[in-house]
Amino acid sequence: MSAAPHRHKFVVYAPDMTDEGAFQRRLSVRQAHLQRAKEEIDRGIIKLAGAMLTPESIESPAAEKKMVGSIFVCEAESLEAVRKLMESDVYYTSGVWDKDKMVILPLGLATHLP
């Protein structure tokens, strides 16, 4: 019986494009993005995920929550597997994320994930 492949942790920094239509593109495909993320969470690939917000988003409880990108912690066999996952996400294919600024790196955790 073969052992399960070793899975590594990775962090993904995926900032949004900053053109005028970027936020509307994000909203137009958001439900598909969230559904896909849920599937990857259920598979154990995505361990932690969320939207990056502007600093103004937390100035008061009533402040508008302005999303400007995404962050993930993933667990996978390789960096290439995470890259393929991100490149197949609707935010990537719809031009929401800035492909030139996306960063995927191995992650050495100092704490346990929640």
Rounded to an integer in angstroms, the radius of gyration calculated over CA atoms is 15 Å
Give the SSE string.
Answer: EHEEHHE
User: Can you give the mean pLDDT?
Assistant: 95
Q: How much β-strand is present in the residues?
A: 25-35%
Level of helix content?
Answer: 25-40%
Ranges where pLDDT stays below 50 over 5 or more residues in a row are none
Strand tally is: 4
Q: Largest sheet, order of strands side by side?
A: 2-3-1-4
Total helices: the number is: 3
Structural class: alpha+beta
Distance between the ends: 31 Å
The largest β sheet comes out as: 4 strands, antiparallel
Shape: globular
3D architecture notes:
The protein has helices at residues 22-42, 79-87, 90-93, and strands at residues 8-15, 46-53, 67-76, 103-106. The mean pLDDT is 95. It is 30% helix and 26% strand. The chain has three helices and four strands; from the N terminus they run E-H-E-E-H-H-E. By secondary structure, the chain is α+β, with helices and mostly antiparallel strands. The radius of gyration is 15 Å and the shape is globular. The protein has a four-stranded antiparallel sheet.
List the keywords.
single chain; 114 residues; alpha+beta; four-stranded antiparallel sheet; 3 helices; globular
What's the layout of helices and strands?
Layout: E1 8-15, H1 22-42, E2 46-53, E3 67-76, H2 79-87, H3 90-93, E4 103-106
Antiparallel strand pairs: 1-3, 1-4, 2-3
